[in-house]
Design goal:
184 residues, 56% helix
């Protein structure tokens, strides 16, 4: 029986997506719903479409006996779709875009840190300092060098608030009154 709270991954797997991302989303949902092994197989199969479903249908009858086996077969079949493993020096490729807010850049950089599973604080700090555009916050990082990425986040809070207020102020400035005819 399918658990009542099962939602499943938001997208079906067609055969071209990142298989690990799809499996991770599925496993997370199944942990929440506590389904049995046979239910896992049936629900996972129901999320396959296109060539991925054709692949599953082509498996011999009773070939799949557990979800672990199903996962292994799935990984072997779609291994080429696996996203390349990130390497720590990829962090130096993360650059702030022109016009990107400090908050957005900090969040994007932080997401890369999480994906890399890196614990090298010196590298994170150095890569962040290299990637940020010149401005008040980067100047503050030059004047007083942070030791950890956590310190960068902490120090960024005040700058993000100021940046938000400045943006709000710029947007609220009244337009210049056009010159009318001069008075006699």
């Amino acid at each position: 029986m399918i658990p009542a709270i099962f939602i499943g991954p938001k997208a079906a797997f067609t055969g071209v997506e990142d298989l690990e991302a799809h499996l991770t989303a599925f496993h997370t949902q199944m942990m929440l719903s506590r389904g049995f092994d046979a239910v896992h197989c049936k629900l996972f199969m129901s999320m396959l479409t296109g060539t991925a479903l054709d692949w599953f249908v082509s498996l011999p009858d009773k070939h799949v006996t557990s979800f672990v086996q199903f996962s292994m077969l799935f990984r072997k079949q779609y291994n080429v779709n696996r996203a390349p493993l990130p390497v720590s020096y990829d962090l130096f490729d993360v650059r702030q875009y022109q016009g990107e807010s400090l908050k957005d850049f900090l969040n994007r950089f932080g997401a890369h840190v999480v994906r890399l599973h890196t614990k090298d604080e010196d590298m994170m700090v150095h890569a962040f300092r290299k990637g940020i555009l010149p401005g008040p916050f980067s100047e503050s990082l030059i004047k007083c060098r942070p030791k950890t990425f956590c310190e960068i986040r902490h120090r960024a809070v005040a700058h993000i608030v100021v940046e938000g207020e400045v943006t709000e102020k710029r947007e609220s400035i009244a337009p210049i009154h056009p010159r009318g005819p001069s008075r006699p």
